[in-house]
Amino acid sequence: MDGVSKVSIIITLIIAAEILFWVFIVLGLVTRYIFHKEKFSMLLLSCTILVDLFLIIATTFNLYQGGTAEIAHGIAAVYIAISIVFGKDFINWADEKFKVLYLKETPRQKIYGNQYAKQYLKSFLKHIIAFLIAYGLIYLMQLVANNPSSLNNLLGVIRIWKIVLIIDFIITISYFIWPKKAKLDT
C-alpha cells in the first residue's frame, strides 16, 4: 500500500471516529431520556473512549508498519487529545441541547462578564492540557515510527497548534479586559 493510501486510511479513520463519537452520544442520550435506560446509556456514552483508543492504536500501528508520518497522523493526535480533554464537555453540551429540544426544558441562562471570562479561562487551561496530550501522542508516534525521515510533518501540526494556543490566550485575556456583555434586544 503506498503512502497516499495509508494517509487516506488515517483520514478516513479520523472521520469515522468523529462520526462514531457523535453517534454514541446521540444513542446514549436517546437511551437515557427516551427509553429511560440509565445504565445502558452510560455504556453507550463510554464507547466514545473506545473510539479514541481504536484511533490511537490504528494511527500508531500505521506508523509502526512503516507508514509515512503525515499531517493526518498529527491531526489524529489532535483529535484524540481534544476528545479526551473536552469529551465530557461535548457530552454535557449535547445533553443540555437534548433536554431543551426534546424534553422542552428551559435552557440554562447564558453567562457574561467576569463569570464568562473565568469560564473561558478554564476552557483555555483545558486547551493547554489537550495540547500537551497531543504532543505526548506525537512523541509516542515518533518512538514507534519505522520511517523517521517523515517526522517533521508531525511537528508541523504542533507548530500550527502553538499559534492557535497563542490566539486563544489573547482571546482569553481580552475577556478579562473587555468582558462579554449581554446583547440588548432591539
TrEMBL record:
Transmembrane segments annotated in the record for this chain: 6-30, 42-65, 71-91, 124-145, 157-178
Domain of life: Bacteria
Alphabetic keyword roster: Membrane, Transmembrane, Transmembrane helix
Protein name as annotated: Uncharacterized protein
Protein source organism: Macrococcoides bohemicum
